């Protein structure tokens, strides 16, 4: 299968990596060559880590990289694709524009998938002439480690598209869960609810970030605490999701003021070096300043 991934950022290069590791030919497309270079370098780093931990061989790493190509030209990227997965910014207009452009150049048999974590796939697909081939494939960060993919079935999605999408997820050794299209789906609604409440606990001084996260990792067995996870996902991303869900479902998804303040200050989490924690070289080295952050 030829898989085209649109976007070489955190999610895009992660999706490209797991698709290539499963034996698919992969093309990554982004707007600028330096972004593509950075994405491939991140894939190489992830694979090298796997070799160092004896999770794969050097030969498997080399074969995976050989299956990956890059381009800045959209038509070239999708012209022979069996599956196109967009991982562009989480904005409805951008995703609709992307789907419209892809449909002009992709084969009529190609599945068009969105990696959106919260936006309506039904609305994204509404701009297509053949929306029955659209579906949501919501991967989780970091893609090469997280085993779940949320398969989001839009109002227009055909049963054939749904079946093929599930088959692809299983072929890359991920576990699919199938949900009907609704704002935030299942995972994002649950995830941002926990994250937002953790932020409210922090901003009202009930506990500090490390203790809040330990409550969930040690007490409930979560692999990562809700504040650390918010830093990894991106505070700006979480704020966008909450604001979108607030418009759909009301004030139960109202973003905490502390989250808004940090985003306004450019504190987006791991990618900016500071969110609820301070990050250096991808690792937590401290907590962010503030009255209740000690």
Automatic annotation (TrEMBL):
Record keywords, A-Z: NAD, Oxidoreductase
GO molecular function: NAD+ binding; oxidoreductase activity, acting on the CH-OH group of donors, NAD or NADP as acceptor
Site residues (Important for catalytic activity), renumbered to this chain: 138
One BP annotation, GO: fatty acid metabolic process
Keyword Cytoplasm among record annotations: no
Annotated ranges, domain 3-hydroxyacyl-CoA dehydrogenase NAD binding: 2-181
Residues at which NAD(+) binds: 7-12, 30, 90, 95, 117, 141, 271
Stretches assigned to the 3-hydroxyacyl-CoA dehydrogenase C-terminal domain: 184-279
Matching PANTHER family: 3-HYDROXYACYL-COA DEHYDROGENASE FAMILY PROTEIN, 3-HYDROXYBUTYRYL-COA DEHYDROGENASE
Name of the protein this chain belongs to: 3-hydroxyacyl-CoA dehydrogenase family protein
Source organism of the structure: Natronocalculus amylovorans
